[in-house]
Automatic annotation (TrEMBL):
This is Cysteine desulfurase. One of its GO terms (molecular function) is catalytic activity. Signal peptide: none annotated. It holds the Pfam family Aminotran_5. Residues 24-379 form the Aminotransferase class V domain. InterPro entries: Aminotrans_V_dom (IPR000192), PyrdxlP-dep_Trfase (IPR015424), PyrdxlP-dep_Trfase_major (IPR015421), PyrdxlP-dep_Trfase_small (IPR015422). The lineage of its organism: Bacteria, Bacillati, Bacillota, Limnochordia, Limnochordales.
Amino acid sequence: MEGWVEEVRNLLPVTRRSIYMNTGTSGPVPEPALRAEAESERYLSEAGPGSAEALRESGRRLEQVRNDLARFLGSTPDQLAFTQNTSHGMAAVVGGMVWRPGDEVVTSELEHASGLLPFGYLRDRLGVRVRVLRPRDGVRLTPDELREGLSTRTRLICMSHVSYATGARLPVEAAAELARAHGCRLLVDGAQAAGCLPEPLDGLGADFYAGPGQKWLMGPEGTGFLHFAPGAWAVAAPASIAWASVEHEESPAGPLTYRLKASARRFELATISLALFEGLRTATQILEGMGRRTIWERVAALTGRLKEGLAALRDVEVITPMEAERSAGLVAFRLRGLSAPEATRLLAERYQVIGRWVPRPEAVRLSVHFFNTESEVETVLGAVGELTAGAGGS
């Protein structure tokens, strides 16, 4: 284990009690980030949260968070809106577009509920047609499959950067090219990529990219972001606005006169938790100290060994693509003779391996981040081997 990994592990109390492989649900928050949250709350309490000083200082600090987060993600401050989570960001885009009966959305069975439910709601309310594509291999949607699913009525493509269910990295760059060629927009669910994969957001070509703070970025719950391609924030108008969306909270021309901010900030409504986002900023600074490329190279090495070891076990089927360029930090697999919920429970109870299971396709899902270790991977392989031996003998 490299020295810098051990340094970060020392900041993560969970690593002292379990093998934590559930970052894809929620990443452990480093102790410095927890202290940053507490310091922010203490400052506001002492200064008076509604005082002129505190309001001015909170605004300044939040812009520092925006600057640092944009730099790490490969965005710019004007392209980044703060959200509560990935679902919040995706809903803001979907709710901000103008829809007419017969308009079409193209998505796939690989999506999280956040990439499916908003469109079922559009279908029922406005008569929007939703095409849910089924990958031929059940694991990864290809560019050709996506192309075949588009039509002249397609207004929006919704695609995960990494499927939460199969762990497959999906062809976002190719989808962006197809969207441009068909005159539609691309919305990306970045929940399982931001903080794990190395590509800068500006280089992906997506019109909209929603991500969480609490997963691979290892920030607090209740933080997230919505990235817009240059000028794309003018395409999807905010479904609702409030004082934080406009240039001046109180206009001399009257209470109903306003001018939307000329940036992604127009999608922010009102007060944003300084404490939560300063916690996110501190967590992001830790990641930035290592670099996106270094983080990804370590994740790729660890997941590569895990997939290789699982594939060598009898009665184990690895669902996630073996190739690093077709996957990320998630590893999904099945154990013959043992349901995914039961296998997940046994891994936690017997071996202190914390993961989760996913329903479509049913599988155990482990999330491997840079702070996991080679020895933890070997322990997991031994544990799965014992479980399969027990299942086979029952």
